Amino acid sequence: xxxxxxxxxxxxxxxxxxxxxxxxxxxxxxxxxxxxxxxxxxxxxxxxxxxxxxxxxxxxxxxxxxxxxxxxxxxxxxxxxxxxxxxxxxxxxxxxxxxxxxxxxxxxxxxxxxxxxxxxxxxxxxxxxxxxxxxxxxxxxxxxxxxxxxxxxxxxxxxxxxxxxxxxxxxxxxxxxxxxxxxxxxxxxxxxxxxxxxxxxxxxxxxxxxxxxxxxxxxxxxxxxxxxxxxxxxxxxxxxxxxxxxxxxxxxxxxxxxxxxxxxxxxxxxxxxxxxxxxxxxxxxxxxxxxxxxxxxxxxxxxxxxxxxxxxxxxxxxxxxxxxxxxxxxxxxxxxxxxxxxxxxxxxxxxxxxxxxxxxxxxxxxxxxxxxxxxxxxxxxxxxxxxxxxxxxxxxxxxxxxxxxxxxxxxxxxxxxxxxxxxxxxxxxxxxxxxxxxxxxxxxxxxxxxxxxxxxxxxxxxxxxxxxxxxxxxxxxxxxxxxxxxxxxxxxxxxxxxxxxxxxxxxxxxxxxxxxxxxxxxxx
Amino acid sequence: xxxxxxxxxxxxxxxxxxxxxxxxxxxxxxxxxxxxxxxxxxxxxxxxxxxxxxxxxxxxxxxxxxxxxxxxxxxxxxxxxxxxxxxxxxxxxxxxxxxxxxxxxxxxxxxx
Lengths: 524, 112
What we know:
The structure holds 2 protein chains of 2 kinds.
Chain A: E1 6-15, H1 19-30, E2 35-38, H2 47-51, E3 53-55, H3 63-71, H4 83-102, E4 120-122, H5 123-136, E5 140-142, E6 147-153, E7 158-165, E8 170-181, H6 201-208, E9 213-214, E10 221-226, E11 241-243, H7 259-266, E12 271-274, H8 280-289, H9 291-300, E13 309-316, H10 317-320, E14 324-325, E15 339-341, H11 349-352, H12 360-384, E16 393-395, H13 411-422, H14 425-429, H15 433-453, H16 461-483, E17 506-510, E18 516-520
Parallel strand pairs in A: 1-2, 1-8, 2-5, 8-15
Antiparallel strand pairs in A: 3-4, 6-7, 6-16, 7-8, 9-14, 9-17, 10-13, 11-12, 12-13, 17-18
Chain B: E1 2-5, H1 15-19, E2 25-27, E3 33-35, H2 46-50, E4 56-58, H3 71-76, H4 82-86
Antiparallel strand pairs in B: 1-4, 2-3
């Protein structure tokens, strides 16, 4: 674990390596900032986007089409989204995608009618291109360099970050004028496709610096995958019929609008499906659109269009939910000076309200918020000038790095304890006040133990920090879910099945040893 | 999970070691990557997609398989390197993205 600490300086430090991080780095560099991007894994393969493929909320600037796009999810999201932000995101996404097509080298397909649909991206190709673009703009990329904590200046503003370069084998610090957290959401190491790097680290680091979160009750998305596999590409299950073990059709089960039926059945039995509603043309189109969807079937010798196969639901937490770091301005600043948030690390309530941001909306948000956060962080940092690098700094990390008591807590035990409360369908998907309260008792106890006794050093520091982040995210989730005594968006409560007009507001949360929530009545 | 690194095919370019987002591989003394942390493999297939000589095989199941895969059988069945071929990476191939026109889903919003 030894090795001397590598000291770096930058105007802007971007933490993360997915679409939001690369757009942030690119636009910060274009705004004249010297940029370092530090990724836990490898910028280009890390995260949910690189591994899969995604629709994009790309809508022509035609007033009727834009109006329809904005109206389509407002009700589903419990009317918590914001038209102003939706308009901005539609504009920015349109511009960014066109740039990707015209100068970014992304090979969009051409349809038989000669038009070029630009509302979908294949993950590996997209993120490969984004890495190249960031490098060409002068961004210094540090791969396999998990950030483990933020650095703060005496006035409380964020002034950089520290971490460990796990393949080089030494610690490092970056003194920066501003930091963009684009670390992804939190899927609790459930095994959902490409999300093992999405452990909610950014939310933990932000909270330690004093930032707030929002919408954490919108965190119980589950994706469909063939049993014992990783490929949670749920869109194609629109073509599925779902069956019980005895071959009878599972009535009411559907990919959209019937996933809770699947969850209930899975509590006591297996569920099978066949993609038997896809005609031959659909089948061919599906193969071309998402080749990774078929890896599982081809390698296991299953024909998904004619044969029944067992499925499971994998938790996608705030990756497909919409909760995250609260945004405090149009440039995606947080409530802490010098700290910006983008992509799934940030709340996506601005455009999704309480409904899933899965697929097209999250992709649009990632590239839009990334661009804004990068530009905003650059402006802030350039305003500070070189003095930013000589500020006295304090390491802000707590849980998992600086235990308050004796050691002895194993990060694997922490992860198992948290997963035991957030993965089961009858605790997280089918939420009830009683189960939420019981889970919070376990999670609060887990937090107390880890705060006192969990410690990781060197390349193991990130494992301890991930475990702490999972526990923190779970507590914000359930405390927010308990505070919303109604059903709105995806935050449904068995004990409060109706939407309550008096709770038409967002819920902010935060805190570490003591978790708090409060209703947010003012508009963003 | 990653199940196979073919020493016969591997050219020790280190690419899989570099691109694995969960840092599963170590460099062996002979330069051939070693699956050092299989438990950390998230079955994302990125190593396969990036391997220029189709030396890697990721089983779609997310737990280690008790019976080892045979390289010759995987090659004969066309599975070795199949993901890289499908996304059109490698010399002389057409990027898969150029042909990625998905099926129509009707009017329902696509949410995943």
